[in-house]
Amino acid sequence: MTTNAAHCPRCGSPLAAHPPTTCGICGYALFVNARPTASLIVLDGPPSQRVRFLALRRAMEPNAGLWETPGGFCDGWEHPREAALREGREELGVTVELGDFVGMYIGGYEFQGELLPVLDCFFLAWLPADRIQIDPGESLEYSWFPLVKAPKMAFSTMDSAIVDACARLTLSTLGH
C-alpha cells in the first residue's frame, strides 16, 4: 500500500510514473510530501521525577486497540506547537503545558487505502490540575506507563520519541 497518484491533480491527465513526477500535458510537478503531525509525551510528577507518560488506547484504525501518545495532523499553516496544544484539548479535554521539543520522526500512516508519509513532531508536556476527559471517538481508555518500560506503541515514531524523551530526561536529571 503506497501513495499512488495515477492522474494529474491539476488537469486529470494520466501520469507516466508514480510521484515524484511531472505531468506530460500541463507540466504540473507532483511530489509525495510528508504530512506534519504534532504529538505529546505527557509526563507526570515534578520535573525531577517525571518517569511516567500518558498513553491512550486507539479506538479507530489504523492500529485500533494499541497504545498511542495524544496527537494528530497539523492543519494547513498550523505550527506544530499550536497543533500539539489543540490536540491536547481535543483528545484529553484539558489545556496541556508544553515543554521541550523532543524531535521529528519520519513514519507512515494508512489512510483511504494509501500509506502516507508523515513527519511526526513530539513535545514533552504535562497536565495542569484539571481532570482528563478523553474523547471516546478517538480513545477507549488511558493509562500511565513508565518511560523506561513503555509498551509497544501504535506507531514506530512514538516508540522512538519515547526512547529519546527518556534519554533526555535521564541526562537532565543527572545534570548533563
Automatic annotation (TrEMBL):
<dbReference type="InterPro" id="IPR000086">
    <property type="entry name" value="NUDIX_hydrolase_dom"/>
</dbReference>
<protein>
    <submittedName>
        <fullName>NUDIX domain-containing protein</fullName>
    </submittedName>
</protein>
<keyword id="KW-0378">Hydrolase</keyword>
<dbReference type="Pfam" id="PF00293">
    <property type="entry name" value="NUDIX"/>
</dbReference>
<feature type="domain" description="Nudix hydrolase">
    <location>
        <begin position="33"/>
        <end position="168"/>
    </location>
</feature>
<dbReference type="InterPro" id="IPR015797">
    <property type="entry name" value="NUDIX_hydrolase-like_dom_sf"/>
</dbReference>
<dbReference type="InterPro" id="IPR020084">
    <property type="entry name" value="NUDIX_hydrolase_CS"/>
</dbReference>
